[in-house]
Amino acid sequence: MKILVVDDDIELRGLIGFALRQAGYLVIEASDGPGALATFAREQPDLAILDVNLPGMNGFELCQRIRAESAAPIMMLTVRNSEEDQVHGLDNGADDYLTKPFSPRTLLARVRALLRRAEIDRPAPLNAGDIALDVERQAVSVRGAAPIRLTGLEFRLLQYLLANVGHTITTERLTSHVWGYRGIGDKQLLKQLVHRLRQKIEQNPAEPRYILTVVGIGYQLQAQAEG
Fold first, then answer.
1. Is the pLDDT of residue 202 over 90?
2. DSSP, residue by residue, 193-213
3. Please, what are the domains in the chain?
4. Of 57, 60, 88, 206, which has the fewest Cβ atoms less than 10 A away?
């Protein structure tokens, strides 16, 4: 497995690289946004670890640029732990967040979880009614329209809803599936993710016909729009 580590702090980048190499991963490094983007395109790593504050191009923009071309898992590193940063990162396609300072054991656990999840996210194609999920391209097509790329989090959410089409899924089950144990009970992050997914599949996101909110419980996917 090949991992790209992007941080302008040479000491921290070295420590992260050392921990990953000790765990058996192939590590490539970059110190700024433009260099990281070029390295990613050239090396095609299995996972990217991006610092938020980077010279030349901040981590959020870098994440967005990478996500436009690849479904590889992305972890963001930040010294802050605000909801605004988390939502911003998720909006740009990040899969996980790690706040500095952190231990090598925590970093490795998160990396392993993201890589395992990336493998799980490649099952047989899922189709139901109007909705077709292209697993290889990580894209969704509604009523035969052109496929729309999904972020890793959007993909996991829609995949789980499709697997349980017509059934109400609780907020706790959805957050646990999408984020693992870290996401359990975080209704606000799930709400933001549902909002982003609706923007991609609903004709009118303000009046959703596919992803329905079941007040006080969770969400339900309808395979065909009613009305």
1. yes
2. HHHHHHHHH-SSTTS-SSEEE
3. 2-120 (3.40.50.2300), 126-221 (1.10.10.10)
4. 206
